[in-house]
Design brief:
CATH topology of the largest domain: BirA Bifunctional Protein, domain 2
Strand content: 25-35%
Structural class: alpha+beta
CATH class of the largest domain: Alpha Beta
Radius of gyration: 18 Å
Domain BPL/LPL catalytic: 15-201
Number of helices: 6
Distance between the termini: 40 Å
GO molecular function: biotin--[biotin carboxyl-carrier protein] ligase activity
EC number: 6.3.4.15
CATH architecture of the largest domain: 2-Layer Sandwich
Catalytic activity: biotin + L-lysyl-[protein] + ATP = N(6)-biotinyl-L-lysyl-[protein] + AMP + diphosphate + H(+)
Mean pLDDT: 88
Protein name: biotin--[biotin carboxyl-carrier protein] ligase
Largest sheet: 7 strands, mixed
Low-confidence stretches: 106-116
């Protein structure tokens, strides 16, 4: 097992801890920050035993999949929530590089397709392949004694295997027929992150990130249902706004801005989100 940073990532000052097995790469990253690590630290593993997803959900990472977290230390107002969109773009760039000939059928649960390639981005933090979840992204943060903020950008990718007991479809790169390994994918991901982070430019390039993200957005222009806590709202996925909030156009013409929720496309949106 050998994780490596790309030459571009190394030139930009990123560092790496590679592991076979960890509890949680996000938890480990925040521990490093609290111990005084200056940031730009990747922690990567091929097995994660206590990982978690959004809203405390379990994110299982069996051996052979990729669990990677980038720990950053931010000072001042840098729109840290947008880093999830930087991560999604970086991962989709990496996937298109390691699987350039991978054919996927068109459509997201019967909805509209993205314009930008075979891997699509589901708001706010999933990467889809053929409409099924291939990867998830989780941001966690902690304030440091000097007033800075540590951000853990966690990325979990189904490389070798995917769960089959979820309430939504999931897939893996091997299931799709592409035999990349976690270590190889990580090296390309580290290069793509360095490139997209330069576009983000500590928050100054957020609009460029937003526009690039929209070219790969799953379900853009299609009927969606968004579950917000215990409520479900329906309408058309119109865009994301300048703060990367989900913009929903309801049937009555009203525009609704959504900061957090679970998005469902196509047939699920028509029937109702469970």
């Amino acid at each position: 097992m050998t994780f490596r940073l790309s030459p571009g990532a190394q030139r930009n000052g990123y560092r790496l801890e590679g592991h076979v097995r960890v509890g949680s790469t996000n938890a480990m990253a925040l521990e490093r920050a609290k111990a005084g690590d200056p940031g730009r630290l990747w922690i990567a593993a091929v097995k994660q035993e206590t990982g978690r997803g959004r809203r405390g959900r379990i994110w299982e990472t069996p051996e052979g999949n990729l669990a990677a977290t980038l720990m950053l230390v931010l000072r001042g107002i840098q729109q840290p929530a947008a880093l999830g969109f930087v991560a999604g773009l970086s991962l989709s760039d990496a996937l298109n590089r390691v699987a350039p000939n991978l054919y996927l059928s068109v459509g997201v649960d019967g909805g509209a397709t993205a314009q930008g390639g075979r891997f699509t981005l589901k708001w706010p933090n999933d990467v889809l392949a053929d409409g099924a979840k291939l990867a998830g992204i989780l941001l966690e943060s902690a304030f440091l004694p000097d007033g800075a903020m540590a951000i853990a950008v966690g990325i979990g990718v189904n490389v070798l295997a995917h769960p089959d007991d979820l309430p939504y479809p999931a897939t893996s790169l091997h299931w799709l027929g592409f035999p990349v390994d976690a270590e190889g994918l990580f090296e390309v991901l580290s290069a793509a992150w360095a490139e997209n982070s330069a576009i983000w430019d500590e928050g100054r390039g957020l609009d460029a990130i937003r526009r690039k993200w929209l070219t790969r957005a799953a379900g853009l222009g299609s009927e969606v249902a968004v579950k917000i806590d215990h409520d479900v709202v329906r309408g058309t996925f119109e865009t994301i706004d300048s703060e990367c909030r989900f913009v929903l156009r309801e049937a009555n013409g009203r525009t609704r801005l959504i900061s957090a929720g679970d998005v469902h496309f196509g047939a699920v949106a028509s029937a109702g989100a469970a």
